[in-house]
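Regression test case RT-17, inverse folding.

Input:
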């Protein structure tokens, strides 16, 4: 049986710069297959560049909550709400072929590669936003009972792990956001050789100045300088400011609009002693 070397890439979040660096690495490693774990779009303007590149790979791919939000958007609720400016940009600019591409992807998929059964989901097969961790043993037992796979792949949390449990692999390969509290993005390579399955987690160091300029000099900054600043701060300090800010908005500015958006952003920046780029 042919050996397979499978790159697992999660949570790209439209970062075309770092996606290309990961794909260059994968090419050098002679990767044979690609698995994409969802949330590939929406946090930058490069929706079509990213999806065009992914389609070229002919990957096994599932949707995350971001793709599902674009597919199921009601057509009006993001209008005039700066919190969703990048989501709205993605919805309005995704090409017809790429919209059809994500519409054809499920949020969970079972695939067999080189005789090994692999369960791929963004959150879990039960909830697309479920957070799965290295010690989610109760969930692992349910997955084994319900799906009987050899490998289970997760995404969404941006927290890499690989757990060997009951002779199965449970893996989150990471994200194209800072992982493990340092200046790296994370993905992984799964090797299948006959009955042997091995997983190699990979950290790819990024150049902060390059990432900063990539965002700051792009249309992303024009569409939403606030979210762009949050993202740049995350790459600078390795903390999950994106979700911190989202939770801050949910708590203090649930009805966010054009009149209070900048106030919310400026208060969050000040309270967290963040930089404005």
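Golden output:
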């Amino acid at each position: 049986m042919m050996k397979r070397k499978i790159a697992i890439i999660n949570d790209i979040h439209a970062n075309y710069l770092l996606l290309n660096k990961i794909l260059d690495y994968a090419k050098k490693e002679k990767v044979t297959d690609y698995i994409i774990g969802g949330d590939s779009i929406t946090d930058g303007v490069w929706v079509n560049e990213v999806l065009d590149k992914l389609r070229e790979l002919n990957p096994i791919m599932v949707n995350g909550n971001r793709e599902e939000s674009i597919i199921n958007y009601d057509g009006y609720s993001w209008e005039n709400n700066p919190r969703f400016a990048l989501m709205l940009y993605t919805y309005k600019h995704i090409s017809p072929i790429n919209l059809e591409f994500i519409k054809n992807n499920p949020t969970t998929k079972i695939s067999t590669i080189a005789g090994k059964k692999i369960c791929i989901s963004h959150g879990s097969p039960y909830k697309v936003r479920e957070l799965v961790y290295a010690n989610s043993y109760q969930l692992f037992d349910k997955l084994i009972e319900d799906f009987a796979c050899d490998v289970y792949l997760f995404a969404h949390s941006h927290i890499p792990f690989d757990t060997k449990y009951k002779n199965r692999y449970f893996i989150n390969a990471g994200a194209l956001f800072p992982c493990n509290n340092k200046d790296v993005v994370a993905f992984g390579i799964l090797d299948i050789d006959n009955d042997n399955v091995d997983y190699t987690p990979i950290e790819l160091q990024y150049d902060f100045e390059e990432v900063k300029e990539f965002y700051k000099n792009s249309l992303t900054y024009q569409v939403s300088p606030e979210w762009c600043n949050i993202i740049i701060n995350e790459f600078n300090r390795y903390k999950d400011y994106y979700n911190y800010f989202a939770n801050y908005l949910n708590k203090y500015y649930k009805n966010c609009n054009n009149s209070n958006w900048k106030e919310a952003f400026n208060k969050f920046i000040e309270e967290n002693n963040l930089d404005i780029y």
